[in-house]
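batch job 7 of whatever, protein = DUF2243 domain-containing protein
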Amino acid sequence: MQPKSTKPYQRTPLIVAGVFLGLGLGGFIDGILLHQILQWHHMLSSVRPLKNVSNIDLNMVWDGLFHALDWVFTLVGIILLWRAGGRDDVPWSSQTFVGSLLIGVGLFDFVEGLIDHQILGIHHVKPGPNQLAWDLGFLVLGALLVLIGWIMLQKSKSQQELEV
């Protein structure tokens, strides 16, 4: 279905909005599930273990900064989605949007896992026995989500080209 505008389709605004929302949501899932509900780790728990009040306070502040960054990603994604929604040259596609979200969540998991778990070692997914397996599983999950999202974007692009 061709939009009213004679301009060609522009999928990029919807994709960028979805990726930013995915980054924010990926961070919130990590922070809420792994930091707060399961309490497997906190932002600095490998370098400042929760053995005294000072370290608990420090980890709480860094968890808060982590959530603030997630909030910024989410807010940017909402603003970009709002702006894309006001354009008549942006085709609305659930497959494009969900694929973009998956890419964002996967990028969050992969980059955060690579930097915080592997390079800096400031925390691990689940410290203790099988720590490396949990960390590598987190990286694989992130890469898999990016791959699934990318495949969804390719399929939605093919479908939209067929419709034109």
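notes: The radius of gyration is 19 Å.
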